[in-house]
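User: I'm writing a short report section on ligand binding and want a predicted complex to refer to. Could you take this sequence and magnesium ion and write out the structure as tokens? A short remark afterwards would be nice.
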Amino acid sequence: MNNLKNLRGTVDLLPDQLIKWQNVEKIVLEQLARASINEIRTPILEMTELFIRGIGEGTDVVSKEMYTFIDRGERSCTLRPEGTASVARALIQNGMLSNHPLQKLWYMGPMFRYERPQAGRQRQFHQLGVEFIGYDSVRSDVEIIALAWDILGKLGIKELNLEINTLGDLDDRSNFQKSFLKWLDINKDSLDLDSQNRINKNPLRILDSKNIQTKKVLENAPRLFNFLSEKSHKRYSALKRQLEVLKIPYIENFNLVRGLDYYTHTAFEITSGALGSQATVCGGGRYDDLIKQMGGPNTPAIGFAIGLERLILLAGKDFEIPRNTDIYIINQGLIAESLAMDLSRKLRNYDLLVELDLSGASFSKQFKKANKLKSRSIIVIGDDEAVKGEFFIRLFDQSSNGNEEELISFENDIKLENWINNNLLVR
Ligand code: ATP
Ligand code: MG
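Assistant: Sure. The structure tokens for the complex follow:
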């Protein structure tokens, strides 16, 4: 029989790799907490209709990337390809928009898209998303961009580019679309096939084409920017001004329209040259019309999603370092083993990383293991000590000699606590 393998485009994350994931996630979650943003968790599996309505039929995600299947109850279900539609549904369904009109939320977890797997692109990948719900001011756009920027900054990631654009409101877009469709009618033969196919489905997305020839032709197309109302213009200028005040550098990219259909006004992406051809680590924008379109109250909102695989690639080697063992407990003999177990539980209450050797191997082998782990300190319990109700504890720093061994009685919690405070908790 052939060995079983995972599905194409999915990956196992192994313990060594997860050290980096956990270290990165820790920084990210701390930063979110400091910004007073609350977590929301929605199901990974949703009704297919949610994404058709919430993302839009003409999008790549809905038209060709969804993992959709019929369940045993003959319902069409889809593994979520993104988080925003689910968050919007959950807020509407749980009546959270009338009681708490203003909410700052984050989510993190796996997303599923049937795409061609390649570097930086998987079929199951992970996103961290943030949504500011009920916020309509330019300041909320600025705050959310700054938040994304600062999360990347906290991770020490340099050489990032923030690209911004404005998509105006629905009126601006429909005015633009009329003139763009006229232009497309004349120029369609010079576009790549993919773009030609979008003319009837989702013409705005043509602006986002990666095809070089198409990009060139588009240089002469009408500009959405020129169809913005006075109000939309003012909003965009204010955004740029406030980013400048915060010293967050940006590049204007008039072709940035993003893959999802429900964006209005601000759209932004953060890219890094270090990522190669899949350069976008964060994509976001305002979606003032989504919640109403989905049947909820008229609620403006803005959000972003960071691709965690790409974020992990960008984060430096510092994050690959596991937490050091604080105390390695070397123990041998029946009485010693049971006291050692008890002691390990007590020590973990001090938020120490305690490794209890369960091998029953010789003392010298256990010493070697403690050494290999570079444990900060060791405890030694043999049956001789155990019978007297005592154990040895000492720092385990090879470079400095004269590390006094301390003999502590199992009952003497005060002495133990003092030793820990003086030797391990001072960093
Ligand atoms: P792309 O242009 O790369 O397809 P997108 O517009 O489809 O991106 P979004 O839906 O905005 O991407 O998702 C936000 C982020 O999630 C992306 O910037 C990227 O970092 C990450 N992401 C999206 N699709 C994948 C994937 N298939 N594999 C890994 N990460 C992904
Ligand atoms: Mg995509």
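A remark for your report: The domain at 323-423 is CATH 3.40.50.800 (Rossmann fold). DSSP finds 16 helices and 16 strands in the chain.
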